[in-house]
Amino acid sequence: MVGVRGQDLQYVGERQRTARGKRVGGSRRRPAWSATDVGTAVDSAASEHPERSILLAADDVEVVYHDVSLVLRGLSLEVRPGQVVALLGGNGAGKTTLLRAITGLLGVHRGKLTKGSIVFDGQKISGRSAASIVRAGIAQVMEGRRIFSVLTVDENLKMGAITRKDRAEIASSYDAVMTMFPQLAARRRQVAGYLSGGEQQMLAIGRALMAVPRLLVLDEPSLGLAPLIVEQIARVLREINSGGTSILLVEQNAMMALSIADHGYVMELGRVVRSAPARELLADNEIREFYLGVGEAGRRSFKSMKARRRVVSW
Q1: How far is it, in rounded angstroms, from Cα 278 to Cα 115?
Q2: Distance between CA 83 and CA 260 in Å, rounded?
Q3: If you ran DSSP here, which 8-state letter would residue 163 be given?
Q4: pLDDT for res 163
Q5: What is the CATH classification number for the domain harbouring 263?
Q6: In terms of residue numbers, what domain contains 126?
Q7: Which residues of 241-273 are buried (b: 16+ CB within 10 A; e: fewer)?
Q8: What predicted TM-score, i.e. pTM, was given to this entire model?
């Protein structure tokens, strides 16, 4: 685990010092995927329907694969309108399985939700098809990008809008994506498989935005990317969120995730073992030592971290 440098700690505070709703990246234009008068709409919905102050709620969810392997064990979490929620956990904790349950992709992997429910904007979505969940307002950026490598950049973005019909609105979303990712604009006719890893990740995010989601779900968007590209992805996620889109972010890069998040959950063995505001998790010594590589004693070598038996309060 790479330790935290001084400039990284300065980077952590950037999200908290930036007021939500300020222009990001020098652009005053409201993104085409943002809701009209987001704040007014959210306040109105919350007052008329108190339960809708929660955009996404997973309640006591259990998931089994192949009718044998129990992966999620009574997991519950919430995402509120306008929030960025970070979901942390090691490999095998069940993070990707939760995203599959939310986006309707469990069946593809021979998984089944056997207990609990998932509700989005007051409507139960557990058990619905992936296409209907996209239409309801949830889009996913999968781990490993999963772009259509034989299609062009333009064709990939058009696939993201496949559930939409209004051509003018699709064109507006396309222009907004190209404004956000000028690298893609310069390569719009290039076959996506020849893009760099960072450009492919931008394309995957852009494709998801073409569905005009109210909730953007991302699985390890920083995986395999250079630090400068990771910082660019973080800035992009802030900009998307400032337009009114809620974000559920699964990440092992805890520094990046918690620096842009409002709230965080820590998962282990299919359960949520810690839930707290992101600022509180960043200040927690156990979180800092296990996920960020530093604690009260400062930097530790990988050898010493590996040799020391892990003891945590949760």
Answers
A1: 29
A2: 10
A3: T
A4: 86
A5: 3.40.50.300
A6: 6-137+213-307
A7: bbbbbbbbbbbbbbbbbbbbbbbbbbbbebbbe
A8: 0.78
Sign (positive or negative) of CA dihedral 270, 105, 188, 176? negative
> Residue 301 phi/psi, 5° resolution?
-75, 160
DSSP string, 186-228: TTTTSBGGGS-HHHHHHHHHHHHHTT--SEEEEE-TTTT--HH
Q: How many domains does the chain have?
A: 1
pLDDT along the chain (314 residues), means of 10: 41 43 40 43 44 86 93 95 94 92 93 95 93 94 87 94 90 93 91 91 94 95 88 93 95 89 94 94 83 55 46 56
Q: What is the pLDDT of residue 1?
A: 39
> In angstroms, what CA-CA distances link 76 with 62, 118, 129, 198, 201?
10, 9, 21, 32, 29
Are 84 and 279 a contacting pair, CB within 8 Å? Answer: no
The token pair at 96 is 């990707």
Give the pLDDT score at 168.
Answer: 93
Q: Which residue has the tokens 């809701």?
A: 35
Summarize the chain as % helix, strand, coil (round to 5).
40, 25, 35
- The answer to whether position 275 is within a domain reads yes
The pLDDT of residue 169 is 93
- E strand segments, 110-268: 111-120, 123-124, 138-141, 215-219, 246-250, 263-268
Within a domain: 182: no
In this structure, is the dihedral angle defined by the CA atoms of residues 159, 164, 168 and 173, taken in order, positive or negative? negative
Assess if residue 148 is contained within a domain. no
- Cβ neighbours of residue 216 closer than 8 Å, sequence gap 6 or more: 139, 140, 141, 205, 208, 209, 240, 245, 246, 247, 248
